[in-house]
Amino acid sequence: MADIAAVVVSHFSQSTLDACLRRLLASAGVARVVVVDNGSHDDSVAIAGTHAARDARVQVLSNPHNPGFAAACNQGAAQCKEPWLALVNPDCLLAATDLHTLRKLAATRSDVGIIGADLVDANGVRDGAARRRELTLARLLAGFGQRDSLAIAADDSTALQALDAVSGALMLMPRAVFAALGGFDARYRLHAEDLDLCRRVRDAGHGVYVANHVRVLHVRGVSSRRRPLWVEWQKHRGIWRYLRRFDPQLRNPWWRVLAFALLWAHLPLAALRARFTANR
C-alpha cells in the first residue's frame, strides 16, 4: 500500500536532486512527492519539472525567494493527505526499500512520532547528527570546538534506538502528528528546526527513534557550500532561538547574557572554519 508522501526542499540542489527524486519515485510505499524549491537559479526547478512531466505523483512548488527550510517543508506538507510524511533532503539518496522498512519499524511501536535513519557519507562514515542529545548550553560548552557535540553512539544491538533528536535530513512521521504540532517552527531559517520539532514531538508524548540498520547515503552540505558564512549566521540564530525556548538554565538572566555573548563570539571562528572548508 502506498501511504507515504515525501517532501523535498531544494535550494541550488541540481547536483543531487535528480538522483534523489529517481530513488524516491522507485521507493516502495511512496504515493506522492512534493518538491518545494527555494529560489534556486540553477537547474533544480527544471530537474523537478522533468520528473513531474513523467510521473503524476510529483508536484513542484517554486518559491521566488528563499523563505527557509522550515517554512518550505510546511508548504510542501500542506499539499499532502497521505497518513505518513517523509521529509527528505535533496542530498539524501535512498534505496528502494528504505522508507518501506522505516514504515514497518514504526508500526512496531505505538508511540512513534519521528523515525530517522542511519545516515552515512560516501565513505560509510556515520553522521553524528543522526543521533543527538537535547541541545543545552552546558552541552555546547562541554563540546566546544567539536563538530557533533550532541552526538550519541549508535546501539547496533537494537533496530530502533530511542533518543532526543534525529537529523532533519531524513524524517518519517505520522502526518497527523506533524499537523497537530503545526509542523516546523518557520521562525527558524536554517538549522535547529529539526531539534525543535523533535523536542515538541517528545513533549507531546511521542517517541523519537533512529533505525540503526537502515543505512542511507547523505551527501552533506550540497546547498550550504555556496554561502558558508550566511549558513553559519543562520545556524547560530537557530541555536540561540532553541536555547531561549527550551534550556531552563537561560531563565536566569545572568546565564542568558553569558550564553548570548559566548554564542556570538563563536560566530567569527565558525565562519572562518566554514570558509576554509568550502574553499578546499
Helical amount:
25-40%
**Mean pLDDT across all amino acids:** 91
Distance between the termini: 46 Å
How many helix segments? 9
Structural class: alpha/beta
What spatial order of strands do you see in the largest sheet? Answer: 3-2-1-4-8
Number of strands: 9
Q: Supply the CATH architecture of the largest domain.
A: Alpha-Beta Complex
Q: Write down the secondary-structure element order.
A: EHEHEHEEHEHEEHHEHH
The largest sheet, given as strand count, sense and whether it forms a barrel, is: 5 strands, mixed
CATH class of the largest domain: Alpha Beta
What is the CATH third-level topology name of the largest domain?
Spore Coat Polysaccharide Biosynthesis Protein SpsA, Chain A
